[in-house]
Specification:
By secondary structure, the chain is an alpha/beta fold. The protein is built from twelve helices and 18 strands. Helix 6 crosses helix 7 and helix 6 crosses helix 11. The chain is globular. Bound molecules: NADP nicotinamide-adenine-dinucleotide phosphate. The site of NADP nicotinamide-adenine-dinucleotide phosphate (NAP) has 29 residues, from helix 1, helix 6 and helix 7.
Length: about 350
């Protein structure tokens, strides 16, 4: 029998947590048990909790009553297998529960991936149900486990936004304004735009005053603007606004300042999870939600299945190598410390240069 430790989050009040340990029962035929030995923790996981009911993130690993389990991106090893095609010792990267172990039901098994075909996941976006079998992947990826847990899920989204902008000729924009640019998703996008010599649009990052230096040091923005100083942005240029903050005040200020020259307004995230709210009618393009799996599906049809994800993976590896010296990995051990870091994350006490990696 294996003890599984997990941290549950109250769905109605995500500041409340409880540690839960239970014994994993016998596996059914076709199932595997995996030990999740590490996972990344960022504002993205907070957003999974904030939008858990509206988007469905609580449904991947159901808990009980008013409690939910936040999904995390991590690495795991198969410790028990009742699935003939997945041996004990297989190494996986994917979308796991915030827990020490998980039971999965592999299907569509290939050398380098499988899909969890458990009934309750079938209606959920495919991108989250795929697990990479990393031993069959190129060696450079196998060497980047920490980066894959902490950075790749965010940089892959950065790539999809970068691709979305190119796909739409930047909607005619001459500048791209990135809200909450000190986030990994935010500066990942800025880096990809900066590294592409075909792109002439200027890149403007908006961030907290205390994070301005961090962003400037990354060297990926033409202009870094502290919050409340949006008037420094040129309102005369057609502008694409890509927002990771979900901060209603910022969206309202920027739309009112740039007016009809906001040609695209793309809501990617909600790192300022307490500052949301209705923005009402605003001048310029209507803000719309960006859902990464949507762009993947579009490109799968146009480029062939898996091509967009493969390109996103390579772009992520490039940016991860570029920013390696700017992110310090901090290891978080055990459920007590995880609960403490969850609270600090909610309270904006984690610096953008800190990369939290958790071992339960
Ligand atoms: N739609 C999608 O498919 C998709 C995919 C990936 C990520 N995202 C979203 O992108 C956003 C960024 O995620 P990430 O994991 O890249 O973030 P991250 O690296 O953990 O972001 C850290 C930054 O976010 C801001 N922040 C973090 N916690 C905060 C808090 N409690 N209050 C106010 N600001 C806070 C601060 O930036 P500033 O000072 O610069 O504001 C901080 O430097 C998330 O909302 C995430 O859900 C969306």
């Amino acid at each position: 029998m294996t003890d599984c430790t997990s941290l549950w989050i109250n769905r109605k009040d995500i500041t409340k947590t409880k540690q839960v340990t239970f014994q994993v029962g016998d596996l059914a035929d076709g199932q595997i048990l995996v030990a999740i030995d590490k996972f990344g923790l960022t504002a993205n996981n907070v957003s999974y909790a904030v939008t858990g009911d509206s988007i469905g993130y609580w449904q991947f690993y159901p808990a009980e009553g008013s409690w939910g389990i936040v999904p995390v991106w991590g690495c795991a090893t198969v410790t028990t297998s009742k699935c003939g095609d997945i041996p004990v010792g297989d190494r996986l990267w994917g979308y796991f529960p915030m827990a020490s172990h998980a039971v999965l039901t592999p299907g569509n098994i290939r050398a380098d991936y499988f899909i969890d075909i458990v009934e309750h996941r079938r209606q959920l976006p495919m991108v989250y149900n795929q697990f990479r079998r990393t031993k069959a992947e190129p060696e450079f990826l196998q060497r980047m486990e920490n980066e894959r847990c902490l950075l790749f899920p965010l940089f892959m989204t950065s790539y999809l936004i970068y691709d979305y902008l190119i796909d739409n000729d930047f909607f005619g924009a001459q500048q791209v304004v990135i809200g909450s640019v000190s986030s990994k998703t935010g500066f990942g996008l800025a880096q990809m735009l900066r590294n592409d010599k075909q792109i002439s649009q200027s890149i403007i990052g908006v961030t907290s005053p205390r994070n301005v230096e961090f962003v400037k040091n990354l060297g990926c923005c033409d202009q870094v603007v502290p919050y409340q100083n949006e008037a420094q942005i040129d309102p005369l240029l057609p502008t694409a606004y890509i927002d990771m903050s979900g901060d209603a005040r910022l969206t309202i200020n920027l739309h009112n300042h740039v007016g009809e020259n906001i040609v695209e307004s793309c809501m990617v995230g909600a790192s300022h999870w307490q500052e949301g709210g209705k923005v009402g009618d605003l001048p310029g393009a209507r803000p719309r939600f960006f859902f990464a799996p949507g762009q993947i599906e579009k490109r799968n049809k146009e480029w062939g299945p898996g091509v967009a994800m493969a390109r996103a993976m390579i772009a992520s590896a490039e940016v991860a190598e570029r920013v390696a010296a700017d992110i310090n990995i901090e290891w978080v051990y055990g459920a007590d410390s995880l609960a403490d870091h969850w609270a600090r994350l909610l309270d904006n006490q984690i610096a953008p240069s800190q990369g939290l990696m958790v071992v339960l």
